[in-house]
Amino acid sequence: MADLLLVSSPAPGIIVISLNRPDKRNALSIALIDQITEAVVACAGDRSCRAIILSGQGPSFCAGLDLKEASISGHSERSARALERMYRAICQSPAITIAAAHGAAMGGGAGLLSACDLVVAAEDLKLSYPEVKRGLIAALVTCLLRRQLSDRKVRELILLGQAISAQTALDMGVVTQVCPAASLMPSALHLAQEACLGAPGAIARTKQLLDDLAYRPLEEDLQIAMGYHLSARNADEAEEGIAAFLEKRPPKWGQRRQ
C-alpha cells in the first residue's frame, strides 16, 4: 500500500505534508486523518519546525470526507472524532500552518484548508462546504469559519453549499492569496520562509492570543459542534444524502432510503 502521506523538508524549518490518495482525490479516510494529525503533532514537538505546508498529490487538494467509508455502520463517531482531533492539532500547532490548495477542496477538505493560518490557492481551485446537500451539517468547519469570516459570508457558504472559485474565495476572505497553478508551491514556500523570520515563541503565543480573544476557546466550540455533527450523521437525511452521492443521483429528502 502506498504511503497516505508524503512528508518532506524543502528548506530548514519548513515541513511539507502532502496528502497521497490521488486516485481518491485525497478523500479523508480515517487512516489518512489520523496520519495527518500524527504528522502535525510530531512537527509541534520539533522545535526546529517553524512552518507546515499542507498540500495534495494528484488533481485535487482534498475531496472531503471519504463518504464510502463514512457510510459503513459504526464509523460515524470514529471519523467525526478523528476530524475534530485533526482540526484541533492544526489550529493549535505552534508553527504557522499554510494550505497550498489546487483543484478541489470540498467538505472536510475545505475544512482542512480552513484550519490553516494561511491559504495559498491555485487559480483552478473550486471550494465548497456542501454538507447540507448530503443531509449533513458543516458543524466542525463552522467553528473555524466563524473565527475568520463575517456571519453573512459563513451563512452563504454553509447554508447554500455552492462551489466557489479561488477568486471568490479570496474576495470572501477564505483564502490568503491566489496564484497560477505552476506557482502554487513556490508561493507557499515564500510564505513559509517569511514565517521563519518571526520569533517562534512570539508566533506561538500570538496564535494562542487569537484563540483566547474569541468568544469561546476553540476546544469548547468543537465540543458543541460535535453534538450537531453526530446528530446529523446518525439521522435519516444523512443516510439518504450519502447514498444519493455515492449512487450519483439527486437525494430524495423526506423519504427513507429503501
Salient structural properties:
six-stranded mixed sheet; single chain; three-stranded mixed sheet; 46% helix; alpha/beta; 2-enoyl-CoA Hydratase, Chain A, domain 1; 11 helices; 258 residues; 16% strand; 9 strands
- Total number of distinct structural domains: 1
Gap from first CA to last CA: 35 Å
DSSP helix fraction: 40-55%
The overall average pLDDT, rounded, is: 92
Described by strand count, sense and barrel closure, the largest sheet is: 6 strands, mixed
Quickly give the structural class. alpha/beta
The number of strands is 9
CATH level 3 topology: 2-enoyl-CoA Hydratase, Chain A, domain 1
**SSE string:** EEHEHHEEHEEHHEHEHHHH
- Helix count equals 11
